[in-house]
Amino acid sequence: MIEDEEAPATLVLGLGNVLCCDDGVGIFALEALRRRYAWPDDVALVDGGTLGLALLPMLESAQSVWILDAVMADAPAGSLVALEGESVEPALRDRLSPHQIGVADLLDALHWRDTWPERLRVLGLVPESLELRIGLSPGVAAGLERLVEAAAAELAEAGHELLPATEGSDETTAHDDRGDAARALGL
């Protein structure tokens, strides 16, 4: 848990379940951002998985929050969806999977406690499949780069200096789906 005095100004939160195909797109996008850039101290990248209300202290302590997740929308699979302000809550109430019940509760708790961040932005892709399978569907995999680029561009526009990660650093380590599965299973 992040203590108030250590809280970053900006939280980038990847959400989803990597065991349910496209539901894991937020985690895949977060990991791509983590590998590509050396992040300033005022930005925290957090794999929120399916934690729901356990994420409340982090969201309450951040000034700006970017949520990366699968988002249901009337658009083809893999389409980029960007939400802010009044459009966030209704879109995340369309429950794609059990973790989004937790996201809806999390947003409600922010309102009830009057701790809504100064800025809350959701970037995601429209899912094609939520079946029990590790890895993204072809349509969503094709859109992943757009999601990562959009998140990086928005964070840079918000004033965060994004420098490329150096070769051989932890940020450039190759992504391993088996590690995601082990993490999701608590191993």
Q: How would you characterize the overall build of this protein?
A:
The protein is of the alpha/beta class and 187 residues long. The chain is 36% helix and 19% strand. It contains 6 helices and 7 strands; from the N terminus they run E-H-E-E-H-E-E-H-H-E-H-E-H. It has helices at residues 25-36, 56-61, 88-93, 98-112, 138-157, 177-184; strands at 10-15, 37-38, 43-49, 64-70, 80-84, 119-125, 163-164. Strands 3-1-4-6-5 form a 5-stranded mixed beta sheet. Helix 1 (25-36) crosses helix 5. The longest helix has 20 residues, at 138-157.
Judged by helices, strands and strand pairing, the structural class is: alpha/beta
Into how many domains do the coordinates divide? Answer: 1
Beta-strand residue percentage: 15-25%
Regarding CATH, which class? Alpha Beta
Order of helices and strands: EHEEHEEHHEHEH
Please tally the β strands and state the result.
7
Any idea what the shape is? globular
In CATH, the architecture is 3-Layer(aba) Sandwich
Concise summary:
This protein is α/β, with parallel strands linked by helices. The chain has helices at residues 25-36, 56-61, 88-93, 98-112, 138-157, 177-184; strands at 10-15, 37-38, 43-49, 64-70, 80-84, 119-125, 163-164.
